[in-house]
Design a protein that fits this description.
Blueprint lengths: L2 E6 L7 E10 L4 E6 L5 E6 L7 E4 L4 E6 L15 H8 L4 H11 L6 E6 L4 E5 L11 E5 L9 H13 L3 H8 L17 H6 L10 E11 L3 E10 L2 E11 L2
Antiparallel strand pairs: 1-2, 1-9, 2-10, 3-4, 4-5, 5-6, 6-7, 7-8, 10-11, 11-12
Helix pairs in contact: 3-4
Amino acid sequence: MCLIAFHWRPDAPVPLIVAANRDEFYDRPTAPLAWWEGGRILAGRDLWSGGTWMGVSREGRFAAVTNFRDPLRSRKDAPSRGFIPLRFLEEEGSAAAFLGWLRKEAPSYAPFNVLVYDGVDLLGYESRHDGIPPLAPGIHAVSNGDFDEPWPKVEAAKAGLAEAEEDDEALFNLLRDARPFPDDQLPGTGVPIEWERALSPAFVRMPTYGTRASTVLRLGRGRVSMAEQRFDAAGAAGRSAFQFPVG
């Protein structure tokens, strides 16, 4: 994922609402949102490496990952970060226990952020800091920087989620916003300004790289709904939607 906006409501019937975009090269093979073998994990699949960027389990567990944009820390020999959410979804332990394991493994990966929910606790982790940011109840977002780092797309996603969180189509429209932000508002992540500009909107569209999937998730105590709108270089490329009881 390259943008995850979420509303954490631990005392509500639907504790977690998520609106997220995955940005990737168009030629990277990907399977759409679907139940994996065994019928326990619902997620898209990176067919290149075998992992996922975001998914849920039958038991109501959730995990998502973003990379951290820093060309100086890029590592072609590192394992795929898509295995991180997959491992959490396959396990049954707490979010805290998982992050305890992950902190030991994190140095082998290129920098990343991960968000995990075990049905009780929602926790984030920033690998480059080896830090667990505080996620108080409320609306948060993360892109390719720190959690709630005030990049324009992060702030816009948080504001949009606050206005549209009860309407799936409104959230998909929020995720489809392709308007770039002014240069003087852009972060400095080490890539050329042309790239900063092209990557600044929620919805990215470049000749070979862009938003490949938009996802809206409502993770309730008794029921989960998850929908994915897919894109390719030509535009919209299909949608999948699932609802299922937790348990």
